[in-house]
Amino acid sequence: MKKNFIFFVLIFILFDSYSFSQQLYVSSIAVRDCGGNTDRATTPYPSIEFDDGRTSYPGGCLDLCAWITAVVKTTANHFMGVDDLTFEIFKFRPGSNPLDPSSSPPIRTISLYNVTAFSLLVSSSTQGPFCTRWDGSYNVEGFWGKTNGFFGFRVTVRTNEVSPTAGNINIQQTSVFPGEDQYPIKVDVVNIHVVKATPTVVGKITGVGAQPYNILYRLSKDATTTITIESPPNNVIRTIINNLPRFGEGIPDGTLTNGDYWDGRDNEGRLVQPGNYIYRIRASAIDTIGWDNANEYIGNISIEPLQITDVSVKDLGPLATDVAIISFMLTEDATVYLDIYPPGTQFNNINCANRSTSCGPTLNGNSVNPLRSYMDTKPRRQTVSFYWDGKDENGRYLCDGQYAVSYTH
């Protein structure tokens, strides 16, 4: 019985040695020009200089590359697969420690899966390079964009293999770029990001979206900027700014935001028709590398220039001196028609584009005209009112009832 116990212990120790005698690590890291073989990391600085993704160097992207080495101390006839190779890109900030994700949190993670496999019959071997392409972009406050500064990355190799002869092989190892005699990646591009176009809210009770539309955006560096409003397809109806200087957000973590606006008018000063329009932002700058044109940003704006909101009605009281008060607010100066119809009046179309008399008012199936009409030019963005004394066009008092009121502007 004692001999059997010793036998089982020896088997366990031998099996365990298979499990823990493998090594897998990132043995080398390089930064190459896109699609090329030249390591740019040993001279200052491996750079991304253009926003358009061009592959020439210096260009719009870089290849981040790693080599993986496996050291094997077993004769098991099995392969050790590399499950994934992960690149965690981070931005250098004051006090950043590249090996500490809490002080250099990843701004973008790129993972390669089922990367390769190493034979356990070979004592030591290196495979690679395994590369991923990066153009400087990442999630900037919910927008896919680029900010300028210096960047590095962590490379983590992982395997979790189970073999009947080699046992469980679970290895994870991380290396960091830049390493010894290497320089961080420099991003110096013109990029448009964190763009927001919001209408001005008009109304104190039921606010509606109106012009001007505020167009807020951030630039990765100072640039000349053009913003146009277009009606599809590509018909420029308004140029908001044309090649005017706008400021960059600042590095490494600037948030300076530029703001321009559209007042809902075309280049002739006329209010545009209600509809959906395109706004297009372009930006460019020059440095020692050359002109860099940002990838243009295109967004949508829906606009209805003239609206009525905050409508309220104070009913006519029982006294002879009482008046009904019909109050409202306009988004723009406009001539307003107020038509009062008999109780029970119905309209074929309550959203017709013309005055209410063309909207098919009927009473008991017969066409009907307004009992009283008002017309006045009202100012925008303040509460205005019409007053009705309960009389018709001829000055006669009308009977009590629920009268229909129509606004047209």
Structure explained in plain terms:
The protein has 409 residues and is mostly beta strands. The chain is built from 1 helix and 28 strands. The strands form 8 sheets. Strands 2, 4, 5, 9, 10 and 11 form a 6-stranded mixed beta sheet that branches. Strands 14, 15, 17, 18 and 19 form a 5-stranded antiparallel beta sheet that branches. 29% of the residues are buried.
In a nutshell, what does this entry contain?
The protein contains one helix and 28 strands.
Protein topology:
Blueprint: H1 2-20, E1 23-33, E2 47-48, E3 62-71, E4 79-91, E5 106-119, E6 124-134, E7 138-140, E8 143-145, E9 149-163, E10 167-177, E11 185-187, E12 192-202, E13 208-219, E14 223-231, E15 235-246, E16 258-262, E17 275-286, E18 291-293, E19 297-303, E20 308-314, E21 324-330, E22 334-341, E23 346-347, E24 361-363, E25 366-367, E26 372-378, E27 383-388, E28 404-408
Parallel strand pairs: 2-11
Antiparallel strand pairs: 1-3, 3-6, 4-5, 4-9, 7-8, 9-10, 9-11, 12-13, 13-16, 14-15, 14-17, 17-18, 17-19, 20-21, 21-27, 22-26, 22-28, 23-24, 24-25
